[in-house]
Specification:
With 177 residues, this protein is of the alpha+beta class. It has four helices and seven strands; from the N terminus they run βααβββαβαββ.
């Protein structure tokens, strides 16, 4: 079993993020922009890629990559809640912490096909938590999707969140860090 290394996406490893998203079966159609930009549905794939690159170039956190040696194997979208424009008006994912509490949100996972079924989602989530903690996060929230057989949401299953210490309250899951 590979020993994964988790790294935040930065301008230095942008090419790895792009390669993972552009690989066959990758989420090149969304570039994880669904909750980040209010006009995401009007953007084409090249524009989505470009806007994500702009965030990274400006030093805005977008998430972490899992590496198997030098090969990007998976992705977890984790960032300050305020960096997700779509969450500010979401009824399904409402903010449950005061604005002054540094709250980060986990919204998406993608595991490259050869790495699926080996627990990489949990490894990514643990690495994402460590990264958010190192950046000053006080609370991490998540919104798992538990529909059997559904891979369209990529939000992760609640059992993974439970394993790493998240607790459920109403429609959200959270972890005090």
């Amino acid at each position: 079993m590979p020993q994964y290394v988790i790294r935040p996406v930065t301008i230095e490893n942008w090419a790895d993020f792009a390669a993972l998203f552009e690989a066959r079966g990758g989420p090149h159609y969304c570039w994880c922009t669904i909750h980040r930009f209010s006009a995401h549905q009007h953007m084409g794939s090249p524009e989505k890629k470009s806007t994500m690159h702009d965030l990274v170039a400006r030093g805005i956190p977008i998430g972490v990559l899992a590496y198997d040696n030098d090969v990007p194997a998976g992705w977890c979208s984790i960032a300050p809640r305020e960096s997700y424009a779509g969450l500010s008006r979401s009824r399904k994912m409402p903010r449950a912490t005061p604005v002054e509490v540094s709250t980060w949100s986990v919204l998406c996972f993608f595991i490259a096909r050869p790495y699926r079924g080996y627990g990489l989602t949990e490894t990514l989530l643990r690495g994402a938590i460590a990264y958010a903690r190192s950046q000053g996060a006080q609370v991490i929230e998540a919104y798992p999707h538990d529909t059997a057989g559904s891979s369209s949401t990529h939000r992760g299953h609640s059992s993974v969140y439970e394993k790493v210490g998240f607790r459920r309250e109403d429609t959200r899951w959270h972890l005090d860090v």
